[in-house]
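User: quick one - fold this with zinc ion bound?
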Amino acid sequence: MDSGRLPHALLLSGPEGCGKLPVARALAQYIHCQHRHDGDSCGVCPSCVQHASFGHADMHYVYPVVKSKTKGVYVSADNIAEWQRFLQEYPYAGWRNWLEISEAGNSRPSIHVEESSEIVRRMNMTNYAAAYKIALMWLPEKLEPAAANKLLKIIEEPYADTLFIFVSDEPKEILPTIYSRLQRVEMRRFSDSAIAGILERECGVDRDAAIQIAALSDGNAAAAVEAAAASGELEGFMRTFQEMMRKAYGRQVRELRELSETVAAMGREKNMRFLAYCSRMVRENFIYNLQVPQLRGQNRAEEQFSSRFAPFVTAANAPGMMELFDTAAEDIGRNANAKIVLFDTMLQLIVLLVRR
Ligand SMILES: [Zn+2]
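Assistant: Sure. Structure tokens for the protein plus zinc ion:
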């Protein structure tokens, strides 16, 4: 960019979670920035602010979507809210995360022919403010053949002020007619220490845990961030579970009501995961009593807790407690009022803990 030799169609490829999409987005922002300095964008000019809020008029994102007449989805722009959430929640952009956020279900998102018409239309429009109009396509390997054919001309003979940035997990699966027209840049995996740094800086994970998670994530930042989030959540679940059991055992009804409200505030999806966790903990504490270590899936902190708590979980109350949590999860899944369900669940726990 600085030497004025930016290719008009660029392909960033490399393994999942190596940071291709963040690099592509940073490049687009850099190109549009009004006060570039020291090889970086300024972050504060109107262009940079528009990039950060996904509002830059000369920036066009393209990504796979599930075409749906009933939902009125044909092109990327029809899923823009999901896309923004995806980039914010999963900056390292895993395909699985996109399937989840875009609620693809059993359908496989792809880039359809309507999308190519839209790209051609957008690239034909007058620039709003910037010198370049940029189309950033995530996963060109998901282009349907008809859609790819429609793009050949504009990639081969682009307008002087347009730039295509393609970001691919599987460059071998890109249709050859497209692939051969792209200037390719291969990115490598992150090193373990780079991953640990990302976890510390961006996820607030402490140094020891960051190194541990990094060692297991094979240079994939998307997987590492996800693992960190999951382990953070489980720690929180464990603390809440312990607090709930202590208060139920102590028959602290007023405190249980407060706790049920705190838990309810976590939201429906997280409530259901928490209740599944509770059910699993009861099962594992019951097994703990049977002294069958190989059946247990506990970490060290959970095991420490079990050494004190397990005696309270017996054949007389374990099945009842598990059913209690499972039913609560089902009810919340069906949109029952979480505060009421959780408080009721906790009151029934008091009764079950007495029955040993
Ligand atoms: Zn700027």
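One thing worth noting: The pocket of zinc ion is lined by residues 33-35, 41-42, 45, 47-48 (CB under 6 Å).
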